[in-house]
Design a protein that fits this description.
By secondary structure, the protein is an alpha+beta fold. It contains 27 helices and twelve strands. A hairpin with a 2-residue loop joins strand 7 and strand 8. This is Flagellar hook-length control protein FliK.
Length: 609
């Protein structure tokens, strides 16, 4: 289906939510068919999907199609038939060349193709708008994402600007959002002037890494923390060996050298007060040798001053300090004794750190090791999905994490950037400013003139894709429609998930969860293109799954009882589950079915199979 087909599928199926009555402005040229004559030179004219009562200047034949130009007039639409190379400008005889001549444009292949598009889609045009569109599309194919974007601008009556066009065109481009983000991340790392933007780099990494990588980093983070802070030296040593076995730390390195390297990395990422403690700890580990006895004593004395009122721990450090000073204790300290010195201090430093891996992100070599180790751990735990659906499905607590992850990704991308910016203007507090840390916000505020053209292009593509989906999310009267696309990681894979939510507004301004519609698209490794369509009425759900996999119903059957159970836990009842192929008896593609002119009202979608 591709990106364009996905976008068409989602953007068009509820067009009558967003369609507005066409506004005819003087100077526009439209194609229309005479339906019926009325007195006083008025007639019912079919223009696109709309019938209007228009004042005509010339008697015209019923059921014939003409080119009209909208004239100035009050109340009734005034139409003047354009004279072509035939009888009164009738469509069968008037040529596209004559219209281009009226627009004072050269007759070229691209201009003719564009005019054919306007005619086929029944879009109103003027010489100015046609010239604008021709300029925007001069480097594009005569069919494709650009034309889809133009149609959306007319259909939804959006501002006719280059920025709106570029944003909508980005929605229909074939390249996935995941690949756009990965390319932006790559260009950001290769542009010297942009390398200091740690916040943007971290946000992009959160979006582009897979769920497997994230889970692996969390698991390894726990092992790292055990190594650094476990009170028992034997447990710390066991954690160190596990990190070596997993490839996080070099197999041939000793614990002291590895400890020094990791503490230094942590020190670089902590606030000043705690960073000073870790810096001293690193110096203690480094100076734990006979030739550095003087520095060891000095560093241990600094640690005592930085960590007062520690009770027995302070007393133990003081005894060690006195022993080294008097030569009663010789350097180097054995691993257990050194651990007892630094462990309480490290535990104090890392008290407020929930994810040690997030502190180590700037150490790219170690970060890559974390990812590889996490992948190894999860690969060992994975079991074939169909062996036992009840056991291998996502646990309830994990499904809550997935839900929270999706919500955080929507916010992190910046789909609410404009709303958040307005709130900050109204209430410029620190908490409000934090809401402007999205990818879109950071890109808009941080892109500079000295950045490379490749980085600017990569950033523009991401900004336009996000803005395009924002433009397609509309609120018309009591009906709201939200459309967005996010990169989502699950079972070690990162793919785009495109979703559309529509329904009536509640008194709080949200979509009514009791009466709404949810439509989403996935491209899965085994099931390929999959569309799931949910209709919710009084918390009763009718679900349709559109997929071309043979016998998909038998494959899904074992999971249906679990689905019903999970929905019941949230107060919903699954009433019907239907499976359909994406092509009908006429071999019509699924996106064409969704683009059918005979669309139902906003409450549902009838896909004829």
């Amino acid at each position: 289906m591709g990106q364009m087909g996905i976008a068409s599928l989602f953007m068009k199926n509820d067009h009558n939510i967003s369609n507005k009555t066409a506004q005819f402005r003087p100077g526009q040229i439209v194609s229309g068919k005479i339906i019926k004559h009325y007195p006083n030179q008025t007639a019912e004219v079919q223009i696109g999907g709309q019938k209007v009562i228009a004042q005509l200047e010339t008697p015209l034949a019923v059921n014939e199609r003409y080119w009209f130009q909208v004239q100035n007039g009050e109340g009734t639409v005034h139409l003047k038939v354009l004279e072509g190379q035939g009888l009164n400008g009738r469509m069968p005889t008037a040529t596209p060349e004559s219209l281009l001549q009226q627009f004072q444009l050269p007759v070229t292949k691209n201009h003719l193709a564009l005019l054919q598009f306007f005619t086929k889609e029944q879009l109103p045009l003027t010489a100015e708008t046609f010239k604008q569109v021709a300029e925007w599309l001069k480097n594009s194919e005569p069919s494709g994402s650009g034309l889809h974007a133009i149609k959306e601008m007319f259909t939804r009556q959006l501002p006719f600007t280059k920025q709106v066009f570029s944003s909508l065109q980005a929605v229909f481009e074939q390249e996935s959002l995941t690949s756009l983000l990965q390319n932006l991340q790559k260009e950001l790392s290769q542009t010297p002037a942009a390398r200091g933007n740690a916040q943007l780099t971290t946000s992009l990494q959160q979006l582009t890494e897979s769920f497997q990588e994230k889970a692996g980093k969390e698991l390894i983070s726990q092992v790292l923390k055990q190594w650094l802070t476990a009170p028992d030296p034997s447990r710390a040593s066991a954690a160190f060996k596990q990190l070596q076995a997993l490839g996080v730390l070099p197999e041939n390195s000793n614990e002291q050298n590895s400890l020094k390297s990791v503490i230094r990395t942590i020190s670089e990422q902590l606030p000043a007060g705690k960073a000073e403690i870790t810096s001293v700890l690193s110096d203690i580990v480094r100076s734990n040798q006979p030739s550095e006895r003087h520095h060891f004593i000095m560093n241990l004395t600094k640690l005592q001053a930085l960590m007062p009122d520690q009770g027995p721990q302070q007393e133990a450090r003081q005894n060690l300090l006195n022993g080294v000073r008097s030569n009663a204790i010789q350097l180097p300290l054995e691993a257990g004794a050194l651990h007892r010195v630094i462990q309480p201090a490290l535990q104090h430093v890392l008290t407020d750190v929930q994810d040690l891996g997030s502190i180590l992100n700037q150490n790219q070599q170690l970060n890559n090791s974390l990812i590889r180790a996490g992948q190894l751990l999860l690969d060992r735990e994975q079991t074939p999905l169909m062996n036992n659906p009840q056991e291998s499905s996502v646990p309830a607590e994990d499904s809550a994490l997935i839900r929270d992850q999706m919500k955080s990704i929507v916010k992190l991308l910046g789909f609410s950037h404009e709303h958040d910016a307005l709130q900050v203007i109204k209430n410029p507090d620190n908490e409000g400013v934090k809401s402007l840390d999205s990818i879109k916000s950071l890109l808009l505020s941080n892109l500079r003139e000295d950045f490379s053209p490749a980085l600017k292009d990569a950033a523009d593509k991401v900004i336009n894709r996000i803005t395009g989906f924002q433009l397609l999310s509309q609120e018309v009267g009591p009906i709201q429609q939200y459309v967005y696309q996010i990169p989502f990681s699950f079972l070690g894979k990162t793919n785009d998930v495109t979703m559309q939510w529509s329904g009536r507004k509640t008194t709080e301004g949200k979509i009514d969860p009791d009466h709404c519609r949810i439509l989403f698209y996935l491209n899965l490794d085994s099931l390929n293109e999959t569309v799931v369509d949910l209709h919710v009425q009084t918390r009763v759900i009718n679900m349709t799954v559109i997929n071309d996999t043979p016998d998909i119903k038998s494959v899904v059957q074992p999971f249906i009882p679990m689905l019903k159970e999970r929905l019941m836990e949230h107060g919903y009842k699954l009433s019907a589950l239907e499976f359909k192929m994406s092509i009908d008896n006429k071999q019509q593609p699924v996106q064409t079915s969704f683009l059918s002119k005979n669309q139902p009202k906003f409450s549902g979608l009838d896909i004829r199979i």
